Amino acid sequence: MARRRRKSRLGAAVAAVVLVAAALAALVITYGEKLNLPFDIPTWSEIGAYLGIKKPVEQGEAGKDPFQLHFIDVGNADATLIVAQDKHILIDAGENDMGDRVVRYLKDQGVEKLDLVIGTHPHSDHIGGLDNVIQNFEIGTLMMPKIPDKIVPTSKTYTDVLKAAKAKQLSITAPKPGDKLELGGATFTILGPGEEYDDLNNLSIVTKVDYKNFSALLTGDAEKEAESDLLDGGWDLSADVLKVGHHGSSTSSSKKFLQAVNPSTAVIHVGTDNSYGHPTKSTLERLRDAGASIYRTDLNGTVIVGSDGTTVHVNTEK
Fold first, then answer.
1. Average pLDDT in the 68-89 region?
2. Please, what is the Cα angle at 217 between 211 and 201, to 5 degrees?
3. Contact 89, 115 (CB under 8 A)
């Protein structure tokens, strides 16, 4: 009997130590900056990524959460509306023929002003509808990447966006890695492009969004070369949600990159029966191997991911 009591007491002591350690860790993570500790404080996202823990994804009222990502179905193109409490952010606006659709969707969501607009890179499937958006809404900050002179587009799509911005006296900001914006309780951190590439896809603006203990990574059409540079840059790439790069092309979503992001949810902007074969079988396999739940606009229509900062909800149109 004495041995059993000793084991019982030992187990209780160990449990108590674990609880105290967990409580201290929570205090350090939550109030670390205020305590001015002489070491870097890991975030819950970083700890979860290190331990391989992913937030459970639930079907629910994603559209009622204080933070929302609306992956708008615009065919084989990108358009993502982010709602951060009372702030609205748009990343890309689909092809030229999708501009009106994006505008209607934004208005249906009650958007009157876009506090931040990002055109990830000047391909028509990302900025084609951006001139429509600029013409129809008040814009706070407009971001597009700096393009090397030798590959500056001469397309009407690109010049239409520049003309629309000029007509509303909007300056275009070319962000740098490390730039941050605080909007609606969320932090928007620019991670890329960190190099001067010869390819417009790799010049995509890569944005990580953190809202309390929830995070999302939006990569435009960044391909493996840009992904490798992000990994080498030492960024915290861990995120609950990944907007899969380049419509699920085999040129993006490398195994090492997905391991670093460790997403519980992956969303692919992709068109039905597109001629590019997106998303590729190899990319889908890598996403499944990474343990991500996959949503696709060709199969699911518009996908809304919402969070209160802890739980994750997903609603789909189809």
1. 97
2. 150
3. yes
